[in-house]
Amino acid sequence: MPTTESLALLTDLYQLTMAQSYFQSQKLGPATFSLFIRSYPSNRGYFVAAGLQDVLEFLEQFKVDAAGIDYLRSRRMFTDDFLDFLRGLKFTGEIWAIPEGRFFFKDEPVMEVTAPIVEAQIVETFIINQINFQSLIATKAARCVHAAGSRSVVDFSLRRTHGIDAGMKVARSSYLAGFAGTSNVRAGQRYGIPLVGTMAHSFVSSFEREIEAFRAFVRSFPNHSTLLIDTYDTLAGARKALKVAKEMAAQGLHLQGVRIDSGDLAQLAGAVRKIFDEAGLNYVKLVGSGGLDEYDLAEFSDADIPYDSYGVGTKMGVSADTPWSDIAYKLVEYDNRPIVKLSPGKISLPGKKQVFRICDPQGRRLQKDVITLRDETVADAEALLKKVMSEGKVIEPLPSLEESRSFFSSEFARLPEAIKAIRNPTYYRVEHSAKLQNLCAAVGKRIRRSQNS
Fold it and tell me: Which residues does 99 contact at the CB level (< 8 Å), separation at least 6?
C-alpha cells in the first residue's frame, strides 16, 4: 500500500494503551499471534487467502512519524518515555502465512506473527483489516466464478464499494479468485488487471433516438462495442442493436455484444439470443448484469440461460450476504510459554503452528488438512504456512498476481464439489495432530490451575 503518509496509527486505541503498559512493565519478550477465522458464515465451506501483499508492505514501512507522535502527545494519555520509545519503533519480527490464492478453513492459522510483543500487538488491527476484507471478497468472487460455470465474470462494483481503498482491493481480490477483469481503470493500471466496460443508460438517453446512440458508440469503438439495450424496451433495443450490427457487418466489422441490466434477465436472455441467432449473428455476445451474485448465476447455469458473461457489482463488492467474518488474532505464545484462550466458543490453539494439506495419491483431489505444531512433519503432505518475512524484511519476492491467480485456479479444481457448493456445502476435513491436542490439554490444565490458586 504505497503512500507518503505513515499508516502506523491505523490501529485501535487499546493497542497503544496496552503497548505503553507492556513497555512500563518491561514486558518486551517475543510473542506469537495466530490469525484465523473461528466459524463459517452461511453457505460457506472454504476461504480464499488474500491481502498478504498489503500486510507485508505495511510491516516493512511501519514507523510512527513525527506528526503521529505529536498527535499522541496532544491526547495527554501517553508518557514521554513511551512516546520516545514509539518514535524509534519498527517491525522487526517474522511472518508465516498461507500464500494468496490458497484455500484455508475455519480454525486454521492463515498467518502467524512472531515479534516483540509491543510490535506484534500494535499491528494487529491493520492485519485483521486487510486479511479479513480481502479474503472475504476473494471467497465471494470464487463462489461467483464457480456458479457461472463456463461463463466469464467481471467486476462492476467500484461505484458501490465502501470507499476508494475497498474498491481497489475488491478489483484485485476478485481477479485473484478468477474474475476475468474489472471496470476499475485505476485497478487496471496498478495491478495489470484487464479492463472491461460497456456504456451507461445516460449515454443512450442523451440521444433523441436509441439507435443513434448505438451508431455513435460503434463509430467511436468499432472493435470494442457492447451496447446496453434495456434503457427503454429490451427487445426493441435488441432489434435496433441488430440493425447496427448488420450495418457494421457490411463494413467488415463485428458488434462485440449487447448487455441486459434490468428486467427478467433469464427470460430476456433467451428472447434476445433468438433475435441475433435467427439473423445469423450468433457471434454477438450476451452480457448480463444488474444486482447479480453467485445465487443468481447458479440458477442461470442450472437453467442454461444463454449469457456469455456477467458483470457482477454491488453484492460481490460488499459481500452482501456475508459482510463480515469471525476473524481473530490471538496470542498463542509469549516468551516461549504456550498460551490458550479458554472463553466458551472462543478457544484458541496454543503455540507456533503449521498446516499440512493432504491430497489423494494422484494429486487430483484435496482430502484433508492437519493442524500441527510448527516443528512437526506430516508424511506425503504439503506445508501451507510459508515463512515470508524475517527481521521485518520480506525474504523473497511474493508470487505475482497472475501467478497467484493461476495457482488458485489449479487448486480450486482439486477442491471437492460438495465443499464448493453454493448452498449448504459439506465441510472440509481438518484434524489436529496428537502433539497439538496434548499441548492444548496441558496448557488448559495449567491455566485453570493457576487461575484457581
Answer: 49, 52, 386, 388, 398, 399, 404, 407
